[in-house]
Amino acid sequence: xxxxxxxxxxxxxxxxxxxxxxxxxxxxxxxxxxxxxxxxxxxxxxxxxxxxxxxxxxxxxxxxxxxxxxxxxxxxxxxxxxxxxxxxxxxxxxxxxxxxxxxxxxxxxxxxxxxxxxxxxxxxxxxxxxxxxxxxxxxxxxxxxxxxxxxxxxxxxxxxxxxxxxxxxxxxxxxxxxxxxxxxxxxxxxxxxxxxxxxxxxxxxxxxxxxxxxxxxxxxxxxxxxxxx
Length: 229
Description:
- The chain is α/β, with parallel strands linked by helices.
- The chain has ten helices and six strands.
- The protein has two domains: 42-99 and 114-122, no CATH class; 123-229, TIM Barrel, CATH 3.20.20.
- Strands 1-2-3-4-5-6 form a six-stranded parallel β-sheet.
- The model is unreliable at 1-7 and 217-229 (pLDDT under 50).
């Protein structure tokens, strides 16, 4: 099995993907089981909630974003939890921040400059590649990625062209993601699949596999499933 998956990540041959089948009833049953799992309580719950905060991309993606509200967002990112709560948990000196600040490319410089002035090393992420619809030419997507990196983004969150999935153009999807990854340079890349627009669970699986295959490394690629449900 491991040799099979290693081959997939090394080879762009995608003929196997047409044979993928997803057992939807089994998936639904497993999802129902997950909902019944017991949650942690007490100190353990508080600890994991704090951990969750450090994984958050604090985000503003509004048409009316301005330098001032991006600045406020960055200050919130540096101090995401009230000081009195941190003291009650004896965590006030642990330097808890969110994982990243996420904005549109045009606001990346605002976020980078604000965090730098605040003496904070929180990375700035930028959506790109025609977010949220992905309905822009590939050349425009790549230019947007390069500009976001030039402005200081350390992570690029791309969206895929859902039409490539819905029409079964798997080689085209692979190439699009591969080129986006190359345009990111040293910046990390996250692939947003918009699973609610992919039509079926089989398509979600196929798009997920191709996103991992087309990334720089299957061990470094970060992938997000964005639901529009």
